[in-house]
Amino acid sequence: MGFIFRLLITTAIVMFLCWLLPGVEIAGWTSALWVAVVMGFLNMFLKPILVFMTLPATIVTMGLFLFVINAVIIMLSAYFVKGFEVRGFWTALLFSIVLTFCQSIVNGFLQKKEA
């Protein structure tokens, strides 16, 4: 599946979650696209560093600390993208969990279609 297609899927999911979850607001489709791009770059470059630095906490919590790292990525995306607002850590945590769940479902359907 191409990078552009995954980016558009993430954009649509971000728009849906902003409509669904209270405490998350977005200005429009262009902001959602920028959120998807920024999250992609942060997941590519910053997340491996954060995972490495917090490896002991991740091991002790049996991987649950990765949810905290995902919430931090969401909050950083809200900081960098004008028009995207997340009110609080717990909202970012819920947003990241539901976003990951939705992306997994969509990727599962698309991979079944390709096979």
UniProtKB/TrEMBL annotation:
Coiled coil: none
InterPro entries linked: Phage_holin_4_2 (IPR007165)
Keywords per UniProt: Membrane, Transmembrane, Transmembrane helix
Pfam families with a match to the protein in the record: Phage_holin_4_2
Transmembrane segments annotated in the record for this chain: 33-52, 59-81, 87-110
Protein name: Putative membrane protein
Species this protein is from: Myroides indicus
